[in-house]
Design goal:
Blueprint: H1 2-15, E1 51-55, E2 58-62, E3 68-71, E4 75-77, H2 101-110, E5 115-121, H3 122-127, H4 149-161, E6 166-173, H5 192-206, E7 214-218, H6 236-250, E8 255-257, E9 264-269, E10 272-277
Parallel strand pairs: 4-5, 5-6, 6-7, 7-8
Antiparallel strand pairs: 1-2, 2-3, 9-10
Length: 299
């Protein structure tokens, strides 16, 4: 009877596998109730949150004994949490489509992806908005706690950590309907204090060994309305510096990722001048002028 049950569970699990991968059995997670690939809680990795560093154009994880391990990142964006759904897309798995967190992590690992950028909304962080229950199959994503926004992030991070996949927390939009071309400014739905409070929520809840695989925070997605280094109310260099220092104050172990602006640029080739615009987030022409950007070096 037990053998028949195990065979059925593996057949059920293979039904939801993404692509051509079938479970080998060696790397499958079997719950105490016999369910395959659908734990109620992911086992602890017994890892210590390293000190993530950026130096010499490379990323490193520095352990408690001082050893530094170079990191190469091959990642994806997993959209959804920045929307009104407040959940990564695709977790409604059924007989027709959709998938589970376990299968996403399994697929990424098998294809040598090791990082996920998780877009978030400032309003959802501050309000701790619970996700929309109808867009997740809770029976097949039992380890994901959707009672609140922060707990959803926490359990997603731990689920990905089971496959040694790191996570970058992306401060993507101000609200699910307002992306925001800057973190804050006159007329923005959120003030500087609000934005920094959202940073504090994340560092307080997630800067610990349970979330050892969080490598840092993206200060703002595509600040295309901003300027750079002009000292004005829309100066994203200054804003990113303020946000980054707040991140490091709350979690000295994390990295700070800073995108560029979008502005008109000129390029002269053979005495002919061309005008072009940066792609949103790509305008980093003057970023090298900020020699001491954050309160901690190599961040």
């Amino acid at each position: 009877m037990l053998l028949r049950r195990n065979k059925y569970e593996y057949q059920l699990r293979d039904k939801h596998v993404i692509g051509d991968f079938e479970g080998s059995g060696d790397d499958e997670l079997v719950g105490t109730d016999g369910m395959v690939g659908n734990p109620t809680v992911y086992p602890s990795a017994n890892c210590v949150l390293p000190n993530y560093l950026s130096k010499g154009g490379k990323f490193y994880a520095k352990g408690p004994n001082g050893e530094s391990i170079p990191l190469a990142i091959k990642g994806i964006n997993w959209f959804g949490m920045e929307t009104k759904l407040a959940l990564p897309f695709g977790l409604w798995t059924n007989d027709f489509n959709g998938t589970t967190v376990y299968e996403i992590a399994f697929f990424l690992s098998k294809n040598n992806f090791n990082s996920v950028r998780l877009p978030l909304a400032i309003s959802s962080i501050l309000d701790n908005t619970p996700p929309l229950k109808s867009v997740i199959n809770q029976n097949l994503n039992r380890a994901i706690d959707i009672s609140s926004y922060v707990k959803t992030i926490s359990t997603l991070v731990q689920s990905l950590g089971y496959r040694n996949i790191s996570v970058l927390l992306d401060l993507h939009s101000l609200t699910p309907s307002v992306s925001g071309g800057w973190p804050w400014s006159p007329g923005s739905p959120y003030t500087k204090a609000d934005y920094l409070s959202a940073v504090d929520v994340l560092t307080k809840a997630l800067c610990n060994n349970h979330h050892w695989n969080i490598i840092g925070v993206d200060a703002k997605n595509e600040p295309y309305k901003s300027t750079w280094g002009d000292g004005s109310a829309t100066d994203f260099q200054l804003m990113a510096q303020i946000i980054g220092n707040r991140v490091i104050k709350g979690c000295p172990n994390w990295l700070v990722f800073v995108e560029g602006i979008s502005a008109a640029q000129k390029l002269t080739v053979d005495s002919k001048t061309f005008t072009f615009f940066d792609w949103w987030g790509g305008g980093l022409e003057n970023a090298g002028d900020a020699h001491r950007f954050l309160i901690c070096r190599q961040k």
